[in-house]
Write a structure and sequence with these properties.
The chain is mainly beta and 175 residues long. The protein has one helix spanning 2-21, and strands spanning 34-38, 43-53, 56-66, 80-91, 98-114, 117-135, 140-155, 158-174.
């Protein structure tokens, strides 16, 4: 009798949970174009990504760039500016969810000030992320990744040419 009551309670709980959660959402069948908000370690940007193969998409983006963190580690100067970039992302799944690898390149125009001297100049960042893309619904994806990058700029007297960690936080909307 007790066993029957426990089994009935488990079935009722599972049925109620499924009813509240609704039907399970299937993963998308294929990559689709996406609009992106990129909130990484050194950038805040907007981008557009387009699939070019079953597991590969390319992205172009623009936004703001900053190296506020470099002086903390004695790796270069703090500068701010604008960036234009591109990345190619390989996804382990054709849906664009799960494991991904994304090499990228960004050109930057920067300026800054240190000890009363200001400078402006050009530079780049290049690196690779490895991460996981999570579906937050039918159209919304969140990519979280980490990697390594090279940061270079020359804004005399300000400069950096250094390897550094890279963080990928990207929110995508499937168009």
């Amino acid at each position: 009798m007790r066993a029957a009551a426990v089994i009935a309670a488990v079935i009722a709980t599972a049925t109620a949970t499924a009813a509240v959660a609704g039907p399970a959402r299937a993963e998308p069948a294929a990559l689709t174009p996406q609009a992106h908000a990129d909130l990484g370690l050194s950038v805040v940007g907007l981008g557009y990504e387009r699939p070019v193969a079953d597991h590969v998409a390319v992205q172009a983006q623009g936004g703001i760039f900053g190296t506020y963190f470099l002086p903390w580690f004695d790796r270069g100067d703090d500068v701010q500016g604008l960036q234009l970039g591109a990345r190619v992302t390989w996804f382990a799944r054709a849906s664009g969810r799960g494991l991904y690898v994304a090499p990228y390149f960004r050109g930057v125009a920067v300026r800054g000030e240190r000890d009363g001297q200001s400078g402006q100049g050009l530079g780049f960042t290049a690196g690779t992320f490895v991460g996981w893309a999570i579906g937050l619904g039918e159209r919304l994806d969140l990519r979280l990744g980490a990697g390594a990058q090279w940061i270079y700029f020359d804004a005399d007297p300000l400069a950096a040419s250094t390897p550094f960690l890279a963080a990928d936080i990207l929110l995508g909307y499937r168009l």
